[in-house]
Amino acid sequence: MSIGYRAVQWNRDKLRYDGILIVAVSLYIAGYAAIHWTLEAPKNLPAEVDLWIRAFGSCAFLMLTVVLSIGPLARLDRRFLPLLYNRRHFGVLTFLVAATHFWFMLDWYLVQHALPNLLTELTKWTDYTKFIGFPFKAIGITALLILFLMASTSHDFWLTFLTPRIWKALHMAIYVAYGLVVIHVSLGIMQNDDTIAVPVMLVGGFGTVVVLHLVAGWRECGPDKGAAVLDDGWIAVGPPRSIPDKGARIVAAPGSERIAVFRDGEQIGALTNLCAHQNGPIGEGHIVDGCVTCPWHGYQYRLEDGCAPPPFTEKLATYRVRINRGIVEVDPRPLPPGTPAAIKCSPETM
Ligand code: HEM
Ligand code: FES
């Protein structure tokens, strides 16, 4: 972790981020209601509740789309990195908006004194074999439960308790939730709504997420494919100056983890590309105040041994490096986290 960075406590940046989020969500909901009310005022109480169901449902879908787009956008263009910071609060707010959508749906039954009908709908097992008439609310409930699981384990306590690898794998379930929401809307409202707005929102949102992930994935294939593996298993990275000063080049032997090879002036060192905090891409960060700094939330590590500066205790796996005929080479077999492995180049080899 970095010395001057408070990752868990509230700070001004987090408050500003959350403030902007809450204002944007409020503006969307108020705008949605105002536009629909002006176009066609609800004729009765259930129709009014339905308006709120749709306002909160579409808001949650759009928020999920943005949450899933932030990762690839930040990889494609560093200017989106500030959006990554505090992305967990974005996720928790998305759950709260989706839960409000669910609450209004319950209210829709309640105002008509028909709540038991919901249970009947959900337990009419023959409907689960139909395409038209499928109980799409059951899919919505499953998606909401996944969002609840993720929101309730979003705190750093769970990250430490579960380990970053398991925590990250668990939070990948957001893609399952997103897929379920797409099905929920396609099998539900789209079947009996003849406006173009819902299909446009669905196809536009889903298409954006898919395209951004494909483009970011394709851009990232480059470093992996380009690494030349030598006879002794080491990987050729390139001349020392091909590594940007205070930056890194990311390499990987086929089938092995990515390695971030950093240069700090004449010092060269290699660390795993996975940050100990949330597996962020260390190699996309820079050396700040003499420490490798993760681009996601600012955790810092010493280049020489992969250890966070005191009083922090996180350690990254390091890799052996050498200079062979003017070319930096790295051994892709990881050393135990915290093992000193960086080297100093002489001015002639630079
Ligand atoms: C992750 C959770 C969920 C998300 C993101 C979500 C999203 C959406 C979206 C985008 C719509 C279409 C809104 C529009 O017409 O503009 C919708 C409709 C609807 N959703 Fe959900 N939903 C979720 C969970 C649920 C749950 C748990 C239920 C109920 C058990 C539910 C019940 C409904 C109903 C009844 C409609 C249709 C409203 C109408 O007929 O006007 N949803 N949802
Ligand atoms: S600081 Fe959070 S992933 Fe690196």
Keywords:
alpha+beta, binds FE2/S2 (inorganic) cluster, elongated, 11 helices, 4-stranded antiparallel beta sheet, binds protoporphyrin IX containing FE, 5-stranded antiparallel beta sheet, 12 strands, disordered N terminus, 13% strand, 350 residues, single chain
Quick synopsis:
The chain is of the alpha+beta class and 350 residues long. It has eleven helices and twelve strands. FE2/S2 (inorganic) cluster (FES) binds at residues 275, 277-278, 280, 294, 296-299.
- Please report the number of helical segments: 11
Number of strands: 12
What percentage of residues falls in helices of 4 or more residues? 40-55%
Order of helices and strands: HHHHHHHHHHHEEEEEEEEEEEE
Mean pLDDT: 89
- By secondary-structure content and strand pairing, the structural class works out as alpha+beta
| Rounded radius of gyration (Å) | 25 Å
Bound molecules: protoporphyrin IX containing FE, FE2/S2 (inorganic) cluster
Please describe what this structure looks like.
This protein is α+β, with helices and mostly antiparallel strands and 350 residues long. α2 packs across α9 and α4 packs antiparallel against α6. The longest helix is centred in the first third of the chain and has 32 residues. The N terminus is likely disordered. FE2/S2 (inorganic) cluster binds next to loops.
